[in-house]
């Protein structure tokens, strides 16, 4: 860049158009709309669990889906806040939600160790793989919404924004798929559903930063 | 117009609504502020480029400013991001003296001190800060920097890499 800064300023002023400031509520509504469409896709493509449709909720299902929803919400909110840079901002609140959700795989490991090899049967692993793939794939819409929002914004840490986009997408994806998955077993939910979030987080950290640099 | 925080915030809010006169005043004030902001941590021959890049980023990211919050921390975050980005680009300059006219205004308001590059840079471990300062700011080669500070050449490279990564992660930290 070698032009005179006066001419640059004149050029920028000439190109000024009114803008609407990015709002947290706008970004969050957008992400939640993505989640709504994802839930509708689960209902149409796979169908909801019979017990959920009947209004009978298993406690493990309630706790797990609740934790994944809150983690997705916390990560989404952080991503949206990160799109508006500000020295002095703290973007670490999502870690508490992540720590709470991490109780699921921890509980799964403890329970699995007590049960022994029977906890990880071949059939169970097959179903688990279905949840892992579906949960990760279903997060794509939320991921796309958040990436689009971040591209409008100015995230100063693209790597962290990418990681959080992945966590939000994976959490909402597996939250939505939980309405189809028949398993209430803590080992299945903790390991395979938790793995869907971890895989999405890794993919987000790997691929999102290059899409949102500015 | 005095470039104090409330005035700048007001000008920015007006600029977001399309007021060109306010935007022109804002950009002129920002140019002065940015030159002072970067002066201690950028080689003089790169200062103008960096200021212009930051003004351009400000223009492109106008919608990311929240009118209910302070303006300078927003501008500083954008400036820090552009500064770290410039540090990433390897360059060598023969001109290593920093311009005295911009250095050391001791009557900086507290808010400016909190969002300064000095404060960000001070959070790096000394070996990383030294490696970045010698190679990326003063423009020495890796070999010259190694001789100057006693770190091996490979350690200089590792410290630059780790330091820049850390700076990126800390851009919004006050």
Supply the helix-strand structural class of chain A. mainly alpha
> How many separate domains of chain A?
1
Overall mean confidence score, pLDDT of chain A:
93
Poorly predicted regions of chain B: 92-107
CATH superfamily of the domain at 5-122 in chain B: RNA polymerase sigma factor, region 2, helix turn helix motif
Query: How much of the polypeptide of chain A forms β-strand, as a percent range?
Result: under 5%
- What proportion of the residues of chain B is helical, as a percent range? 55-70%
Sheet/helix structural class of chain B? mainly alpha
Largest interface pair = A-B, 34 and 44 residues
Helix content of chain A: over 70%
Please tell me what the overall shape of chain A is: elongated
The name of the CATH topology of the domain at 5-122 in chain B is Rna Polymerase Sigma Factor, Chain: A
H/E series of chain B? HHHHHHHHH
What's the alpha carbon Rg of chain B, rounded to whole Å?
17 Å
Q: Characterize the overall form of chain B.
A: elongated
Strand content of chain B: under 5%
The strand count of chain A comes to 0
Q: Name the helix and strand elements of chain A from N-terminus to C-terminus, one letter apiece.
A: HHHHHHHHHHH
Radius of gyration of chain A: 20 Å
Q: Average pLDDT value of chain B?
A: 84
What does this structure look like?
The complex is a heterodimer of chains A (214) and B (174). With 214 residues, chain A is mainly alpha-helical. Chain A has one domain. Helix content of chain A is 74%, strand content 0%. Chain A contains 11 helices and no strands. Chain A has helices at residues 5-14, 24-45, 50-53, 59-82, 94-101, 103-115, 122-138, 140-152, 158-178, 186-207, 209-212. Chain A is elongated, with a radius of gyration of 20 Å. The model of chain A has no long low-confidence stretch (mean pLDDT 93). Chain B is mainly alpha-helical. Chain B has a domain at 5-122: Rna Polymerase Sigma Factor, Chain: A. Chain B is built from 9 helices and no strands. Chain B has helices at residues 5-16, 20-38, 44-60, 72-88, 110-114, 117-121, 126-137, 142-149, 153-169. In chain B, helix 2 (20-38) packs antiparallel against helix 3, helix 2 (20-38) packs across helix 4 and helix 3 crosses helix 4. Chain B starts with a helix and ends in a 5-residue tail after the last helix. The model of chain B is unreliable at 92-107 (pLDDT under 50). The chains are: A mainly alpha (214), B mainly alpha (174). The A-B interface holds A 1-3, 5, 8-9, 12-22, 83-89, 91, 152-154, 156-160, 214 and B 15-18, 20, 23-24, 27-28, 31, 48-49, 51-53, 55-57, 59-67, 69-70, 73-74, 76-78, 80-81, 114-115, 168-169, 171-174.
């Amino acid at each position: 860049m070698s032009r005179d800064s006066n001419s640059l300023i004149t050029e920028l002023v000439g190109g000024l158009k009114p803008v609407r400031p990015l709002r947290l509520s706008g970004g969050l509504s957008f992400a939640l709309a993505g989640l709504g469409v994802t839930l509708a896709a689960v209902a149409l493509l796979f169908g909801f669990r019979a017990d959920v449709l009947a209004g009978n909720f298993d406690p493990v299902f309630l706790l797990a889906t609740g934790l994944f929803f809150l983690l997705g919400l916390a990560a989404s909110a952080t991503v949206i806040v990160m799109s508006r840079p500000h020295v002095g901002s703290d973007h670490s609140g999502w870690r508490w939600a992540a720590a709470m959700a991490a109780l699921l795989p921890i509980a799964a490991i403890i329970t699995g160790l007590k049960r022994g090899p029977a906890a990880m049967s071949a059939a169970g692993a097959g179903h688990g793989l279905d949840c892992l793939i579906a949960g990760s794939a279903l997060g794509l819409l939320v991921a796309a919404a958040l990436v689009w929002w971040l591209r409008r914004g100015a995230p100063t840490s693209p790597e962290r924004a990418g990681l959080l986009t992945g966590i939000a997408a994976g959490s909402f994806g597996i939250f939505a798929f939980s309405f189809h998955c028949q398993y209430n077993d803590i080992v299945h939910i903790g390991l395979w559903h938790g793995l869907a979030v971890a895989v999405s987080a890794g993919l987000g950290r790997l691929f999102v930063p290059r899409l949102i640099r500015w | 117009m005095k470039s104090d925080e409330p005035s700048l915030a007001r000008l920015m809010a007006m600029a977001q609504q399309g007021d060109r006169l306010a935007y022109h005043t804002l950009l002129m004030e920002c140019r002065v502020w940015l030159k002072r902001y970067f002066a201690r941590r950028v080689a003089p021959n790169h200062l103008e480029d960096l200021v212009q890049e930051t003004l351009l980023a400000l223009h492109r990211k106008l919608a990311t400013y929240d009118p209910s919050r302070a303006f300078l921390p927003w501008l500083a975050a954008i400036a820090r991001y552009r500064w770290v980005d410039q540090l990433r680009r390897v360059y060598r300059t023969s001109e290593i003296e920093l311009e005295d006219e911009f250095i050391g205004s001791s009557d900086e308001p507290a808010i400016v001190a909190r969002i300064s590059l000095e404060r960000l840079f001070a959070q790096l471990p000394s070996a990383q800060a030294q490696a970045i300062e010698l190679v990326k700011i003063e423009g020495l080669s890796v070999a010259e920097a190694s001789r100057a500070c006693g770190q091996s050449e490979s350690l200089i490279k590792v410290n630059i890499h780790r330091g820049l990564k850390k700076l990126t992660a800390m851009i919004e930290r006050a």
